């Protein structure tokens, strides 16, 4: 772990990440080999070293105070099967247990069935977080992974914010009203442009509803 922590520090020092719009994922401009980018969120990018497949480094591109909050969230959650774990951190990065599943967003793209147990697992995980005094939010199809039939939440960076968030409730409703009766029985591969159009349309609708 000491070797990996040193590599993570070196990665963080030379990697360049920009955030062009708070509502869009950050962009990685450059990073050293042999690290690979395995995901980008609105605050940070996640990197994998092929020599250490069980860990990832999450480097913040903006909102550094969010990193401190995320550390607190992981310390509060402890060890739970529906969450990752934090093994170390620096001024801009976290070292996390790698979740080797597939996001629900990519399940839709690849036509992989999403079992109902995933929804139940996430519901239970969110209830667990609330019981510890946290405020789960921003849980959606890109932040939940399917692994061996179970659901895992991979991003807890907003669990300290007290703002209301209906993303998971809306996704659950869509699962039971649309996905379960149709796409689960007859899985089709949905192109990314279609999925992104739905995502953008949902964001537009929620903003419009909030203004109303």
TrEMBL record:
Q: Which residues form a coiled coil?
A: none
| Name by which UniProt lists this protein | Serine/threonine protein kinase
Q: What UniProt keywords apply to this chain's record, in alphabetical order?
A: Kinase, Serine/threonine-protein kinase, Transferase
List, alphabetically, the InterPro entries matched.
Kinase-like_dom_sf, Meiotic_Drive_Suppr_Kinase
| Entry's Gene Ontology molecular function annotations | protein serine/threonine kinase activity
């Amino acid at each position: 772990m000491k070797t990996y922590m040193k590599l993570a520090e070196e990665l963080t020092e030379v990697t360049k990440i920009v955030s062009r719009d708070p509502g869009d994922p950050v962009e990685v401009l450059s990073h050293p080999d042999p690290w690979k980018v395995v995901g980008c969120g609105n605050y940070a990018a996640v990197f994998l070293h092929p020599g250490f497949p069980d860990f990832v480094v999450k480097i913040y591109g903006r909102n550094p105070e969010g990193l401190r909050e995320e550390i607190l969230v992981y310390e509060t959650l402890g060890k739970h099967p529906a969450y990752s774990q934090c093994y170390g951190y620096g001024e801009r990065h976290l070292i996390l247990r790698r979740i080797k599943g597939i996001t629900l967003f990519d399940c839709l793209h690849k036509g992989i069935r999403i079992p109902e147990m995933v929804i139940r697992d996430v519901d239970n995980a969110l209830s667990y977080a609330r019981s510890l005094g946290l405020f789960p939010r921003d849980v959606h199809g890109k932040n939940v992974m399917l692994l061996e039939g179970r659901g895992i939440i991979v991003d807890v960076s907003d669990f300290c914010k007290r703002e209301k968030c209906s993303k998971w409730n809306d996704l659950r409703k869509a699962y039971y009203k649309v996905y379960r009766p149709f796409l689960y029985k007859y899985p089709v591969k949905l192109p990314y442009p279609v999925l992104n159009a739905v995502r953008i349309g949902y964001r537009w609708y929620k903003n419009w509803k909030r203004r109303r």
